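Format notes (please read before filing issues)

Several people have asked whether sequences and structure tokens are stored in separate files. They are not. Every record keeps both together, in the order shown below: the sequence lines, then the token lines. Line labels are part of the format and must not be stripped during preprocessing.
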Amino acid sequence: MGSKERILRQKEETRANILTAAREIVKDEGWQGLSMRKIADKIEYTAPIIYEYFANKEAILQELTCKGFTILIKDLEAAKADSDDPAIQLEGMWLAYWNFALKNKEMYQLMYGVEMTCCAQRTTESDTPYQLISGCIAKLMKVEKPDAHVIKQKYFTFFSVIHGLISINIVGNGLSDDINKQILKDAITGIIRYIEEE
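Then the structure lines:
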């Protein structure tokens, strides 16, 4: 391996270490505890070196948001691929969404601005979950050319219930796992049934 390749690999490793350190700090102290100085201390670098990779804390937040949406999109696509039936796809994708949020609470908080002083971060990836899910909603509707506004309304009906339940679990003590799963299943099934019967 040449010196250019080795330098490039070292830069990629340092960048990845910065992001990993940021996530570890957030798991321990929450988003309000994240600072460039703490990241530098955690990876045993000086703060100016961190600034060589990221202009500021917001740049780190943006990068972590992109990573979060990339993981979420992969999970949604895998759930969608399990069936050709749009009702089953919708149920699978919303369950995958739920599982992602609970497995990656800090990432979800950042992606959607839950319990944070900043707004949710926008990225090029942040519209993809909507596109994947709304495509299934359109297929489920019994109208030849469903209206985009109606599809959006139905998407946000799902999102409101599921995001609300996730937020309750992130912000508070939440409900038991069994109760959460029953509420989630009832909500998803009920909304799908409502769409199918229209």
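For reference, the curators noted about this record: The first helix runs from residue 3 to 29. The chain has two domains: 1-54, 58-197.
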